[in-house]
Amino acid sequence: MDRFKNSNENPDFYFSNSEGAQANAPVKQSAPHNAKRKKKSSGVGSTYLFFIIVICVSVVVSIYAILCMNDLFAITKTKSNVTVSYSQAIESADDAIDILAEKGLIRCKNFCKFFVRFRDNFITNSRLGGPYEAGVYYLNGKMGLEGMLVTLQGDTSSSETVTLTFPEGYTVPQIVNKLSENDVCDKSSLLSVIQSTEFTYSLVTNLKASDSVPYRLEGFMFPDTYEFFINESASSTVRKFLENGDAKFTEKYKQRAEKLGYSTYQIITIASIIQKEAANDEQMKEIAGILYNRLEDTVNFPTLGCQSTADYITNKVAPNLSSTSSHTSEYYMAYYNTNNSSTVVGLPAGPICNPGMTAIHAALYPKDTSAKFFFHDTKGNLYTAKTYSEFKQKVRTYAPYLEY
Question: What is the pLDDT of residue 41?
Answer without folding.
Answer: 60
